[in-house]
Amino acid sequence: MRDLTGRDAARLGDKTDHGSTIIQAAAELKHRGIPTALDGHLTECPRCGGTYPIIATGARRHKGVKVALIGDKTACGATIIPA
To answer: What is the value of pTM for the model shown?
Structure first.
C-alpha cells in the first residue's frame, strides 16, 4: 500500500532513525502481511526514553484515522524508516 507519492505504509516492527520500533498497529489492516500503523499508534524510543505516538501525514484513512507512512515523524521527532 503506497500513497500518491510512492511512500509505503508504516508497519508493526518498522524502525525510526532514533532506533525506535513501531509497537502498535491495526491488526485488521495489513500491508504485505504485516499490520499497518495509524496516526497515534506508539513507538518505543530508546534515545528519548519512552513511548511516543506517530504523527501520520498521509491522505489515506482507515476507519477515519490516517495511515502512517515511511518518512512520517513521531512525537519525539524520529522519522520512520523501513524495517
So the answer is: 0.91
Instruction: For 54-68, write each residue's pLDDT tens digit.
Output: 999 989 999 999 999
Domain residue spans of the chain: 15-81
Q: Nearest 5°: CA angle at 77, between 9 and 15?
A: 45
DSSP E strands, 1-83: 15-16, 21-22, 26-31, 34-36, 42-45, 50-55, 61-62, 65-66, 73-74, 80-81
What sign for the dihedral angle of Cα 61, 71, 37, 76?
A: negative
Mean pLDDT in residue range 54-83: 95
Length of the chain equals 83
User: Could you tell me the three cell numbers for 6?
Assistant: 510512492
Residue 1's pLDDT is what? 61
